[in-house]
Write a structure and sequence with these properties.
About 5% of the residues lie in helices and about 40% in strands. By secondary structure, the protein is mainly β.
Protein backbone atom coordinates (compact mmCIF):
# COMPACT_ATOMS: atom_id res chain seq x y z
CA UNK A 1 0.00 0.00 0.00
CA UNK A 2 1.52 3.36 -0.98
CA UNK A 3 1.86 6.32 1.41
CA UNK A 4 -1.12 8.21 -0.10
CA UNK A 5 -3.42 5.24 0.32
CA UNK A 6 -2.19 4.54 3.87
CA UNK A 7 -2.66 8.13 5.03
CA UNK A 8 -6.04 8.46 3.34
CA UNK A 9 -7.22 5.21 4.89
CA UNK A 10 -6.20 6.36 8.37
CA UNK A 11 -8.05 9.64 7.85
CA UNK A 12 -11.16 7.86 6.55
CA UNK A 13 -11.21 5.49 9.52
CA UNK A 14 -11.05 8.45 11.91
CA UNK A 15 -13.88 10.16 10.04
CA UNK A 16 -15.97 7.00 10.15
CA UNK A 17 -15.45 6.73 13.89
CA UNK A 18 -16.36 10.37 14.48
CA UNK A 19 -19.23 11.00 12.10
CA UNK A 20 -21.09 7.72 11.63
CA UNK A 21 -23.28 6.38 14.46
CA UNK A 22 -21.66 3.30 15.86
CA UNK A 23 -23.05 0.40 17.86
CA UNK A 24 -20.27 -1.79 16.55
CA UNK A 25 -16.81 -0.85 15.35
CA UNK A 26 -16.50 -0.57 11.61
CA UNK A 27 -15.21 -3.77 10.07
CA UNK A 28 -13.46 -4.17 6.73
CA UNK A 29 -15.16 -6.47 4.23
CA UNK A 30 -13.28 -7.78 1.22
CA UNK A 31 -15.09 -8.26 -2.07
CA UNK A 32 -12.88 -11.15 -3.08
CA UNK A 33 -14.70 -13.15 -0.37
CA UNK A 34 -18.09 -12.76 -2.10
CA UNK A 35 -20.90 -10.32 -2.83
CA UNK A 36 -21.96 -8.15 0.10
CA UNK A 37 -25.41 -7.11 1.32
CA UNK A 38 -25.83 -4.28 3.82
CA UNK A 39 -29.26 -4.14 5.50
CA UNK A 40 -30.34 -1.19 7.66
CA UNK A 41 -33.47 -1.08 9.82
CA UNK A 42 -34.57 1.29 12.54
CA UNK A 43 -33.02 -1.09 15.09
CA UNK A 44 -29.58 -1.32 13.48
CA UNK A 45 -27.50 -2.35 10.50
CA UNK A 46 -26.14 -5.77 9.47
CA UNK A 47 -23.70 -6.91 6.82
CA UNK A 48 -24.00 -10.31 5.12
CA UNK A 49 -21.37 -12.11 3.07
CA UNK A 50 -20.83 -15.78 2.31
CA UNK A 51 -23.48 -17.01 4.73
CA UNK A 52 -22.21 -14.85 7.60
CA UNK A 53 -24.27 -11.95 8.99
CA UNK A 54 -22.79 -9.50 11.47
CA UNK A 55 -23.89 -6.21 13.04
CA UNK A 56 -21.87 -3.38 11.57
CA UNK A 57 -23.06 0.21 11.56
CA UNK A 58 -20.24 1.57 9.40
CA UNK A 59 -18.76 -1.13 7.15
CA UNK A 60 -15.74 -0.43 4.97
CA UNK A 61 -15.93 -2.42 1.71
CA UNK A 62 -12.78 -2.84 -0.35
CA UNK A 63 -10.66 -5.07 -2.56
CA UNK A 64 -7.54 -6.70 -1.19
CA UNK A 65 -5.96 -5.98 -4.56
CA UNK A 66 -7.69 -3.15 -6.39
CA UNK A 67 -5.55 -3.66 -9.48
CA UNK A 68 -7.74 -6.69 -10.28
CA UNK A 69 -11.52 -6.34 -10.62
CA UNK A 70 -14.09 -8.66 -9.10
CA UNK A 71 -17.56 -9.62 -10.37
CA UNK A 72 -18.88 -9.66 -6.79
CA UNK A 73 -21.16 -6.72 -6.12
CA UNK A 74 -22.72 -4.69 -3.30
CA UNK A 75 -26.41 -4.39 -2.41
CA UNK A 76 -27.46 -1.77 0.16
CA UNK A 77 -30.94 -2.06 1.65
CA UNK A 78 -32.52 0.59 3.88
CA UNK A 79 -35.96 0.06 5.40
CA UNK A 80 -38.49 2.82 6.00
CA UNK A 81 -37.17 5.23 8.63
CA UNK A 82 -33.63 3.83 8.43
CA UNK A 83 -30.39 5.14 6.94
CA UNK A 84 -27.70 2.80 5.64
CA UNK A 85 -24.09 3.99 6.01
CA UNK A 86 -21.44 2.37 3.81
CA UNK A 87 -17.88 3.26 2.83
CA UNK A 88 -16.33 2.09 -0.43
CA UNK A 89 -12.55 2.20 -0.19
CA UNK A 90 -10.28 1.28 -3.10
CA UNK A 91 -12.85 -0.99 -4.73
CA UNK A 92 -12.78 -2.34 -8.26
CA UNK A 93 -16.00 -4.04 -9.37
CA UNK A 94 -16.76 -5.14 -12.93
CA UNK A 95 -19.92 -7.21 -13.23
CA UNK A 96 -19.98 -7.43 -17.02
CA UNK A 97 -18.69 -10.98 -16.71
CA UNK A 98 -21.27 -11.97 -14.10
CA UNK A 99 -24.52 -13.87 -14.56
CA UNK A 100 -27.37 -11.37 -14.34
CA UNK A 101 -31.06 -11.86 -14.97
CA UNK A 102 -30.76 -10.80 -18.63
CA UNK A 103 -27.62 -12.74 -19.40
CA UNK A 104 -25.45 -9.78 -18.54
CA UNK A 105 -23.93 -8.63 -15.25
CA UNK A 106 -25.93 -7.05 -12.46
CA UNK A 107 -25.37 -3.58 -11.02
CA UNK A 108 -21.98 -3.11 -9.37
CA UNK A 109 -23.69 -1.27 -6.50
CA UNK A 110 -27.45 -1.20 -6.02
CA UNK A 111 -29.59 0.46 -3.35
CA UNK A 112 -32.99 -0.86 -2.29
CA UNK A 113 -35.78 -0.26 0.23
CA UNK A 114 -37.72 2.83 1.26
CA UNK A 115 -35.04 4.41 3.46
CA UNK A 116 -31.94 6.57 2.90
CA UNK A 117 -28.42 5.56 1.87
CA UNK A 118 -25.17 7.42 2.61
CA UNK A 119 -22.34 6.22 0.39
CA UNK A 120 -18.89 7.45 1.44
CA UNK A 121 -16.02 6.93 -1.01
CA UNK A 122 -12.35 6.91 -0.12
CA UNK A 123 -9.24 6.31 -2.22
CA UNK A 124 -9.97 5.22 -5.81
CA UNK A 125 -13.13 3.27 -6.64
CA UNK A 126 -14.14 1.88 -10.03
CA UNK A 127 -17.62 0.47 -10.66
CA UNK A 128 -18.63 -1.08 -13.99
CA UNK A 129 -22.12 -2.55 -14.26
CA UNK A 130 -23.57 -4.98 -16.77
CA UNK A 131 -25.98 -4.19 -19.59
CA UNK A 132 -29.09 -2.13 -18.72
CA UNK A 133 -27.75 -1.35 -15.21
CA UNK A 134 -26.46 1.92 -13.80
CA UNK A 135 -22.99 1.97 -12.27
CA UNK A 136 -24.59 2.98 -8.98
CA UNK A 137 -28.17 1.86 -9.43
CA UNK A 138 -30.56 3.72 -7.16
CA UNK A 139 -33.56 1.62 -6.21
CA UNK A 140 -34.19 2.98 -2.72
CA UNK A 141 -37.13 5.31 -2.21
CA UNK A 142 -35.33 7.72 0.10
CA UNK A 143 -32.26 9.84 -0.47
CA UNK A 144 -28.98 8.63 -1.94
CA UNK A 145 -26.08 10.82 -0.82
CA UNK A 146 -22.63 10.22 -2.29
CA UNK A 147 -19.58 12.01 -0.94
CA UNK A 148 -16.12 11.67 0.55
CA UNK A 149 -15.43 12.28 4.21
CA UNK A 150 -11.77 13.01 3.49
CA UNK A 151 -12.68 15.13 0.48
CA UNK A 152 -10.19 13.26 -1.71
CA UNK A 153 -11.99 10.01 -2.48
CA UNK A 154 -12.78 9.17 -6.09
CA UNK A 155 -15.63 7.19 -7.61
CA UNK A 156 -15.90 6.30 -11.28
CA UNK A 157 -19.37 4.78 -11.81
CA UNK A 158 -19.98 3.41 -15.30
CA UNK A 159 -23.26 1.98 -16.49
CA UNK A 160 -23.58 -0.90 -18.91
CA UNK A 161 -25.28 -0.56 -22.28
CA UNK A 162 -28.41 1.64 -21.86
CA UNK A 163 -27.46 2.25 -18.22
CA UNK A 164 -26.70 5.60 -16.59
CA UNK A 165 -23.60 6.18 -14.53
CA UNK A 166 -25.74 6.99 -11.48
CA UNK A 167 -29.50 6.53 -11.57
CA UNK A 168 -32.13 3.92 -12.31
CA UNK A 169 -31.88 0.92 -14.60
CA UNK A 170 -32.76 0.83 -18.29
CA UNK A 171 -35.42 3.44 -19.16
CA UNK A 172 -35.97 4.05 -15.45
CA UNK A 173 -35.40 7.36 -13.72
CA UNK A 174 -34.19 7.79 -10.16
CA UNK A 175 -34.97 10.41 -7.56
CA UNK A 176 -33.40 12.33 -4.70
CA UNK A 177 -29.69 11.98 -5.46
CA UNK A 178 -27.07 14.27 -3.88
CA UNK A 179 -23.36 14.35 -4.69
CA UNK A 180 -21.61 16.34 -1.96
CA UNK A 181 -17.91 16.02 -2.68
CA UNK A 182 -14.96 13.91 -3.64
CA UNK A 183 -14.21 13.30 -7.30
CA UNK A 184 -17.38 11.62 -8.51
CA UNK A 185 -17.50 10.64 -12.18
CA UNK A 186 -20.76 9.24 -13.56
CA UNK A 187 -20.40 7.63 -16.96
CA UNK A 188 -22.98 5.73 -18.98
CA UNK A 189 -24.39 4.94 -22.39
CA UNK A 190 -27.79 5.95 -21.06
CA UNK A 191 -26.53 9.29 -19.81
CA UNK A 192 -24.60 10.17 -16.68
CA UNK A 193 -27.43 10.92 -14.23
CA UNK A 194 -31.07 10.23 -15.06
CA UNK A 195 -33.67 11.80 -12.72
CA UNK A 196 -37.34 11.46 -13.58
CA UNK A 197 -39.95 11.28 -10.86
CA UNK A 198 -42.42 13.86 -9.60
CA UNK A 199 -40.96 15.88 -6.75
CA UNK A 200 -37.52 14.24 -6.97
CA UNK A 201 -34.18 16.03 -6.96
CA UNK A 202 -30.52 15.82 -7.92
CA UNK A 203 -27.85 18.01 -6.31
CA UNK A 204 -24.20 18.55 -7.21
CA UNK A 205 -21.60 20.27 -5.04
CA UNK A 206 -17.89 20.19 -4.25
CA UNK A 207 -15.72 18.61 -6.92
CA UNK A 208 -18.46 16.36 -8.31
CA UNK A 209 -18.19 15.65 -12.03
CA UNK A 210 -20.49 14.14 -14.65
CA UNK A 211 -18.36 13.36 -17.67
CA UNK A 212 -17.68 11.11 -20.66
CA UNK A 213 -21.26 9.96 -21.24
CA UNK A 214 -23.11 9.11 -24.44
CA UNK A 215 -26.91 8.95 -24.63
CA UNK A 216 -29.03 8.00 -27.62
CA UNK A 217 -31.84 10.08 -26.11
CA UNK A 218 -31.71 13.56 -24.61
CA UNK A 219 -29.52 14.50 -21.67
CA UNK A 220 -26.03 13.13 -22.27
CA UNK A 221 -24.74 14.27 -18.88
CA UNK A 222 -27.90 14.89 -16.82
CA UNK A 223 -31.54 14.36 -17.78
CA UNK A 224 -34.13 15.97 -15.50
CA UNK A 225 -37.89 15.59 -15.98
CA UNK A 226 -40.61 16.43 -13.43
CA UNK A 227 -37.68 17.01 -11.06
CA UNK A 228 -35.27 19.57 -9.63
CA UNK A 229 -31.55 19.77 -10.41
CA UNK A 230 -29.42 22.12 -8.31
CA UNK A 231 -25.79 22.60 -9.32
CA UNK A 232 -23.92 24.36 -6.51
CA UNK A 233 -20.50 23.44 -7.93
CA UNK A 234 -18.79 20.77 -10.00
CA UNK A 235 -18.23 20.06 -13.67
CA UNK A 236 -20.31 18.58 -16.49
CA UNK A 237 -18.10 17.91 -19.51
CA UNK A 238 -17.30 15.51 -22.32
CA UNK A 239 -20.90 14.32 -22.75
CA UNK A 240 -22.91 13.91 -25.95
CA UNK A 241 -26.26 12.85 -27.35
CA UNK A 242 -26.32 10.87 -30.58
CA UNK A 243 -29.97 10.31 -31.51
CA UNK A 244 -31.64 12.11 -34.40
CA UNK A 245 -33.98 13.94 -32.00
CA UNK A 246 -31.77 14.08 -28.94
CA UNK A 247 -30.88 17.35 -27.21
CA UNK A 248 -28.90 18.58 -24.24
CA UNK A 249 -25.37 17.22 -24.41
CA UNK A 250 -24.57 18.43 -20.90
CA UNK A 251 -28.02 18.89 -19.35
CA UNK A 252 -31.55 18.42 -20.67
CA UNK A 253 -34.23 20.19 -18.64
CA UNK A 254 -37.38 18.51 -19.91
CA UNK A 255 -40.89 19.79 -19.33
CA UNK A 256 -43.06 16.78 -20.03
CA UNK A 257 -46.32 15.67 -18.41
CA UNK A 258 -47.21 19.20 -17.27
CA UNK A 259 -44.95 18.87 -14.22
CA UNK A 260 -42.29 21.46 -13.52
CA UNK A 261 -38.66 20.62 -14.24
CA UNK A 262 -36.26 23.05 -12.61
CA UNK A 263 -32.54 23.59 -13.16
CA UNK A 264 -30.82 25.98 -10.76
CA UNK A 265 -27.15 26.63 -11.46
CA UNK A 266 -25.44 28.57 -8.67
CA UNK A 267 -21.87 27.79 -9.65
CA UNK A 268 -19.82 25.25 -11.58
CA UNK A 269 -18.86 24.62 -15.18
CA UNK A 270 -20.65 23.05 -18.15
CA UNK A 271 -18.28 22.80 -21.11
CA UNK A 272 -16.98 20.51 -23.82
CA UNK A 273 -20.33 18.79 -24.49
CA UNK A 274 -22.11 18.14 -27.80
CA UNK A 275 -25.67 17.60 -29.04
CA UNK A 276 -28.00 18.34 -31.93
CA UNK A 277 -29.30 21.33 -29.96
CA UNK A 278 -28.20 22.57 -26.58
CA UNK A 279 -24.67 21.25 -26.56
CA UNK A 280 -24.35 22.58 -23.02
CA UNK A 281 -27.92 22.96 -21.69
CA UNK A 282 -31.23 22.41 -23.47
CA UNK A 283 -34.27 24.06 -21.88
CA UNK A 284 -37.24 22.27 -23.40
CA UNK A 285 -40.86 23.15 -23.95
CA UNK A 286 -43.58 23.03 -21.34
CA UNK A 287 -42.78 23.76 -17.71
CA UNK A 288 -38.97 23.58 -17.82
CA UNK A 289 -37.28 26.46 -15.99
CA UNK A 290 -33.65 27.54 -15.54
CA UNK A 291 -32.16 29.96 -12.99
CA UNK A 292 -28.53 31.12 -12.93
CA UNK A 293 -26.42 32.97 -10.37
CA UNK A 294 -22.82 33.07 -9.18
CA UNK A 295 -19.80 32.63 -11.45
CA UNK A 296 -21.42 29.96 -13.62
CA UNK A 297 -19.67 28.90 -16.81
CA UNK A 298 -21.65 27.55 -19.79
CA UNK A 299 -19.14 27.85 -22.61
CA UNK A 300 -17.34 25.84 -25.29
CA UNK A 301 -20.26 23.50 -25.96
CA UNK A 302 -21.16 22.50 -29.49
CA UNK A 303 -23.71 21.42 -31.99
CA UNK A 304 -22.32 18.32 -33.69
CA UNK A 305 -18.93 18.65 -32.03
CA UNK A 306 -16.00 16.27 -32.45
CA UNK A 307 -14.49 14.38 -29.52
CA UNK A 308 -10.88 15.22 -28.78
CA UNK A 309 -9.64 11.89 -27.46
CA UNK A 310 -6.66 13.56 -25.86
CA UNK A 311 -8.64 15.93 -23.67
CA UNK A 312 -11.88 13.96 -23.45
CA UNK A 313 -14.03 16.94 -24.43
CA UNK A 314 -15.90 17.94 -27.59
CA UNK A 315 -14.84 20.80 -29.82
CA UNK A 316 -14.91 22.20 -33.38
CA UNK A 317 -18.65 22.17 -33.95
CA UNK A 318 -21.02 25.14 -34.12
CA UNK A 319 -21.16 27.02 -30.79
CA UNK A 320 -24.32 25.90 -28.99
CA UNK A 321 -24.26 26.46 -25.24
CA UNK A 322 -27.55 27.30 -23.51
CA UNK A 323 -30.40 26.60 -25.92
CA UNK A 324 -33.84 28.12 -25.27
CA UNK A 325 -36.68 26.32 -27.01
CA UNK A 326 -39.98 27.55 -28.43
CA UNK A 327 -42.38 24.84 -29.59
CA UNK A 328 -44.29 27.05 -31.97
CA UNK A 329 -43.78 30.60 -33.15
CA UNK A 330 -46.87 31.76 -31.24
CA UNK A 331 -45.77 30.17 -27.98
CA UNK A 332 -43.62 31.90 -25.36
CA UNK A 333 -39.94 31.12 -25.72
CA UNK A 334 -38.17 29.59 -22.75
CA UNK A 335 -36.15 32.18 -20.81
CA UNK A 336 -33.54 32.20 -18.08
CA UNK A 337 -34.16 33.72 -14.66
CA UNK A 338 -31.24 35.71 -13.25
CA UNK A 339 -31.31 34.66 -9.62
CA UNK A 340 -28.51 36.83 -8.27
CA UNK A 341 -25.10 38.32 -8.89
CA UNK A 342 -23.33 36.92 -11.96
CA UNK A 343 -19.86 38.34 -11.43
CA UNK A 344 -17.38 36.29 -13.44
CA UNK A 345 -20.11 34.29 -15.20
CA UNK A 346 -19.94 33.39 -18.90
CA UNK A 347 -22.99 31.98 -20.69
CA UNK A 348 -23.28 31.35 -24.42
CA UNK A 349 -26.86 31.64 -25.67
CA UNK A 350 -28.89 30.28 -28.61
CA UNK A 351 -32.62 30.54 -29.23
CA UNK A 352 -34.80 28.40 -31.47
CA UNK A 353 -36.53 31.55 -32.68
CA UNK A 354 -34.48 33.81 -34.95
CA UNK A 355 -34.19 37.45 -33.82
CA UNK A 356 -34.81 40.18 -36.37
CA UNK A 357 -34.15 43.88 -36.28
CA UNK A 358 -37.81 44.52 -35.49
CA UNK A 359 -38.40 41.50 -33.25
CA UNK A 360 -35.71 40.77 -30.67
CA UNK A 361 -36.09 37.53 -28.71
CA UNK A 362 -36.39 37.59 -24.94
CA UNK A 363 -33.72 35.45 -23.24
CA UNK A 364 -33.68 36.40 -19.54
CA UNK A 365 -35.51 38.17 -16.74
CA UNK A 366 -34.28 39.59 -13.45
CA UNK A 367 -31.54 41.82 -14.91
CA UNK A 368 -30.18 44.52 -12.62
CA UNK A 369 -29.15 48.07 -13.34
CA UNK A 370 -25.46 48.87 -13.57
CA UNK A 371 -24.45 45.44 -14.90
CA UNK A 372 -22.94 44.97 -18.36
CA UNK A 373 -24.72 41.76 -19.37
CA UNK A 374 -23.02 41.74 -22.77
CA UNK A 375 -19.94 40.47 -20.93
CA UNK A 376 -21.95 37.67 -19.31
CA UNK A 377 -24.40 36.48 -21.99
CA UNK A 378 -22.72 35.94 -25.34
CA UNK A 379 -24.64 35.06 -28.52
CA UNK A 380 -23.44 31.79 -29.98
CA UNK A 381 -23.85 33.33 -33.43
CA UNK A 382 -21.95 36.52 -34.19
CA UNK A 383 -24.85 38.12 -36.08
CA UNK A 384 -26.61 38.99 -32.83
CA UNK A 385 -26.09 41.04 -29.71
CA UNK A 386 -27.55 41.15 -26.19
CA UNK A 387 -29.68 44.16 -25.27
CA UNK A 388 -31.50 45.18 -22.08
CA UNK A 389 -34.86 46.83 -21.49
CA UNK A 390 -35.75 47.40 -17.82
CA UNK A 391 -35.12 43.98 -16.17
CA UNK A 392 -35.35 41.93 -19.37
CA UNK A 393 -32.56 40.79 -21.67
CA UNK A 394 -33.04 40.21 -25.38
CA UNK A 395 -31.15 38.60 -28.22
CA UNK A 396 -31.22 41.22 -30.95
CA UNK A 397 -30.10 41.34 -34.55
CA UNK A 398 -27.29 43.73 -35.40
CA UNK A 399 -28.50 46.90 -37.08
CA UNK A 400 -26.36 49.23 -39.17
CA UNK A 401 -27.06 52.87 -39.95
CA UNK A 402 -25.46 53.89 -43.24
CA UNK A 403 -25.23 57.43 -44.62
CA UNK A 404 -24.57 58.00 -48.32
CA UNK A 405 -23.62 61.07 -50.31
CA UNK A 406 -23.94 61.43 -54.08
CA UNK A 407 -21.40 63.36 -56.13
CA UNK A 408 -22.35 66.44 -58.10
CA UNK A 409 -22.55 64.48 -61.33
CA UNK A 410 -25.03 62.09 -59.69
CA UNK A 411 -22.82 59.22 -60.77
CA UNK A 412 -20.77 58.36 -57.69
CA UNK A 413 -21.79 57.35 -54.20
CA UNK A 414 -19.37 58.76 -51.66
Amino acid sequence: MNIRKLLTRLVSLVLIAVFLPTVAMADTWYLEDGSITVSATESGQNVSQGGVTKADSAPVIRNRDSSASTTNNVTIKADTGATANVTLEDTNIDTTGGAGSKGAGDAAVRTEGAGNVNLNVELDNTLQSGNTHAGVEKGNGGNLTIGSGSGSGQLVATGGSSGAGIGGGENTGAENITITGGDIFATGNGGGVYVENRGSSFNMSGSAAVSDNTASGSGGGVYVNCSTFTMNAGTISGNETTGANSDGGGVCVAGLDNDTSTFTMKNGTISGNSAKNGGGVYVAKGTATTTVSGSVQITDNWKNGTLNTGTGVYENGSANNLYLFAYETDKVLKTVTIGGDLTGAKIGITTSRTPTASSPVQIATGAQDGVDYTKIFTPDMTDYTVTKTDTTLYLSAHTHDWEYSVSADNQTII
